[in-house]
Design goal:
Elements (H helix, E strand, L loop, with lengths): L9 H5 L5 H7 L1 H18 L9 H12 L26 H11 L7 E2 L4 E2 L4 H11 L10 H12 L4 E5 L5 E2 L3 E2 H7 L3 E5 L7 H6 L6 H9 L14 H4 L11 H7 L5 H13 L11 H15 L3
Parallel strand pairs: 3-6
Antiparallel strand pairs: 1-2, 4-5
Helix pairs in contact: 2-3, 13-14
Length: 302
């Protein structure tokens, strides 16, 4: 077992050919920090392993410790096809081949080739989405939390937005709805309780918010865990008598845009009649095409 005074210096180790591959993979400063941490831990306990004077030993140890920090392919055996922790929707090989030239060399991301001046990076994707969906404007973001952030900031900045206490959720690692609304420039107006919220709760606070916003917010309730009352589907049923029963499964089924295209098309009319003018859609290209086809069939004659 080597003496602590015999430990090689960090600079000497990083110049040794044995650590060249580790430095190439993780960077010089990262490797230096890892080497210092190793030697500091040995000095703290007063002993060091036999390989502590050998650069090859350091290379092997760092490869074991730092190898798990890299992204690497895995098998998805969870039963969940689109898994957030495993990369969600994969790129098909054909799509990857199509975009590969665009991400491996310069491209006109924010440059208008016709005018020779700076352009808009959303121009191409917005034009195609508008053609696909028939929307007046469109944009693409990384996830639905980001979409909600943009919607709130655009349509409700500086205004109060009512939300049932039962919907003050946290999603992902640390996306909390109240914090999201604050960052969007909105003021959260809590309504009802965590397990039951009625139309009368919104009516009692009507003077505090814009009535149009409550219709949009209430319409988004899906009866998750049966906590939201059927009377909260205000845009669909208008003045529905108060009741003490949770939303029936059949009622939720009528408003949920989930399933085959024919099923979604049959239920899409209720959303159109509700007065909702915008939806945030999470999904892959196929999901966008399904919603675009449904929307076009519902608005075009015949």
């Amino acid at each position: 077992m080597p003496e602590l005074r015999d430990l090689p210096g960090i600079d000497r180790l990083t110049k040794d050919e044995a650590l060249a591959a580790v430095i190439s993979a993780h960077g010089l400063e990262t490797v230096k920090a890892a080497l210092r941490q190793l030697q500091q831990s040995w000095r703290a306990c007063g002993t060091a392993p036999d390989w502590a004077v050998d650069a090859a030993g350091y290379a092997h140890e760092l490869s074991l410790r730092m190898g798990h920090l890299d992204y690497q392919p895995v098998f998805n055996l969870t039963g969940t096809i689109i898994h957030t922790n495993l990369g969600r929707s994969m790129l098909s090989e054909s799509l990857y081949d199509a975009v590969r030239p665009l991400v491996t060399q310069p491209m006109n991301l924010e440059f208008n080739l016709e005018t020779g001046k700076r352009g808009d990076r959303d121009a191409v994707v917005e034009r195609r989405l508008c053609v696909l969906t028939g929307a007046e404007a469109a944009t693409v973001v990384n996830n639905n939390a980001a979409a909600l952030m943009l919607v709130l900031n655009t349509f409700a900045q500086g205004r109060r937005v009512p939300v049932s206490r039962g919907e003050l959720i946290e999603i992902g690692g640390s996306f909390r709805l109240p914090e999201l609304m604050t960052r969007a420039g909105c003021e959260l107006l809590e309504v009802g309780t965590t397990n039951r919220t009625h139309l009368k709760d919104f009516q009692a606070r009507r003077a505090w918010f814009d009535p149009e916003l409550v219709e949009k917010q209430v319409a988004g309730q899906r009866g998750r865990y049966k906590m939201v009352r059927s009377s909260l589907w205000y845009p669909f049923c208008r003045e529905m008598p108060e009741d003490d029963v949770a939303v029936p499964d059949e009622f939720v089924d009528q408003g949920a845009l989930i399933g085959p295209k024919e099923r979604i098309r049959a239920r899409f009319r209720a959303w159109e009649d509700s007065g909702i003018t915008g939806l945030t859609i999470g999904g892959d290209e196929e999901a966008l095409r399904v919603m675009a086809d449904v929307a076009r069939l519902n608005v075009e004659p015949g």
